[in-house]
Design a protein that fits this description.
Structural class: alpha+beta
Number of strands: 7
Distance between the termini: 19 Å
Order of helices and strands: EEEEHEHHEE
Largest sheet: 4 strands, antiparallel
Shape: globular
Strand content: 15-25%
Number of helices: 3
Number of domains: 1
Helix content: 10-25%
Length: 129
């Protein structure tokens, strides 16, 4: 497995298998490189999301959405921007690119071995192991 550093990033694929991307930790930021686009999330999202998924005790829809679109309640995406999550709002750090939490974080957790993820063409879900 990759080290998750800029020099040795995690090589990931979205749940539907339609997009390849890299992620790595740099300081307290989790950097997500999708083509020429760079998204940044708080690195603590890895542990926080894992704990939240364990508390859900079952499958949770991903619900990926861009920042300017509403997230469906009860999804990973909604939790990643909810004022009641451990950081009190957005895990995304780069204004205009704070969304897609539900798209890019679950495959990383799957790579790390903490969750199980469905890989259908649409409407994927995740659950803690």
């Amino acid at each position: 497995m990759a080290a998750g550093t800029k020099e040795d990033p995690w090589e990931l694929v979205t749940a539907p298998g339609t997009s390849h991307y890299q992620m790595y930790i740099e300081g307290d930021e989790l950097v997500c490189q999708v083509g020429s686009t760079k998204l940044k999330y708080q690195a603590r999202a890895i542990d926080d999301l894992t704990l939240w998924l364990k508390a859900q005790n079952g499958w949770v829809p991903l619900g990926a959405a861009d920042e300017n679109k509403p997230a469906v309640e009860g999804t990973v995406e909604a939790w990643g921007r909810d004022e009641h999550n451990p950081v009190g709002g957005w895990y995304g750090l780069r204004k205009g690119y704070r969304g897609r939490f539900g798209m890019y974080l679950p495959p990383l957790l799957e790579e790390l071995g903490t969750v199980e993820l469905t890989h259908d063409a649409r409407n994927n879900s995740v659950r803690a192991l």
